[in-house]
Amino acid sequence: MNGENPYPVWARDALICVGLFLAGALLAFGYSYRPLHGALSWQVEQLEERLDERNLENVRLSDALAKQKSNETIRIDPETLAQVERELVQTKRVLNQAEKDLKRAERKRKESAASASKWRKRFEDLRDQPASVVAAASTPTKTRNPESVPAAPAVASSDPSASPSSGGSQASPERGMLSPVETTDSADP
Question: Beta strand 177-180 with 169-172: parallel, antiparallel or unpaired?
């Protein structure tokens, strides 16, 4: 037996034990490698999913925060708002006063236009009246005596042959208007 196996018994037993130990270790490593690394891969996947969810939540929160900040910058200060409201009330008051003034001015303009048309009509009537009165009154004045002429005629003719003692108003031929003229009788001192 000695010739067949060059190693002593104790070395052979030690080598067999070391070989069995290494074979068991290899078998244990092979048996646990896949589940251990699969579990780690599963954990990594789970952590990546949670990380993605957190990142998505962070993006949403950062968007909401940016929106809040933009709303905050747009928000008006209460003091500024109160000042603007006071100015608005004052502007409305001034606008109402301006509208009242405009209505008053419009009313005055209408009254002035009505008055102007009324006086224009009177002027036209008086301007046209002396010509007809002169034509109608010139012939009877020559034939009548001065005492029969009414005391205050509305219009006296501008005819030089007409009696100057008739008194009252006399028509001015160049303007066509009446002007009051006081005449005195040359017979009375």
Answer: antiparallel
In the numeric block, which tokens belong to residue 176?
Answer: 């066509």
CA distances from 149 to 140, 162, 168, 179 (A): 10, 11, 12, 20
Q: What distance in Å separates the CA atoms of residue 132 and residue 56, rounded to the nearest whole number? A: 105
β-pair partners for 171: 178
- How many CB atoms are closer than 10 A to CB 171? 21
| 20: Cβ contacts below 8 Å, ≥ 6 apart | none
- Structure tokens given for 94: 């001034």
Distance between CA atoms of 92 and 104, rounded to whole angstroms? Answer: 18
Average pLDDT over residues 19-34: 89
Supply the pTM of this predicted model: 0.32
Q: Among 48-52, 54-58, 61-65, 135-139, which is the least confidently predicted range?
A: 135-139
The most confident of the ranges 43-52, 91-100, 158-167, 169-178 is 91-100
Tokens of 97: 């006063």
List phi, psi (to 5°) of 9: -65, -45
Q: How far apart are CA 28 and CA 20, in angstroms?
A: 12
Over residues 117-139, the mean pLDDT reads: 75
Are 145 and 186 in contact by the 8 Å Cβ rule? The answer is no
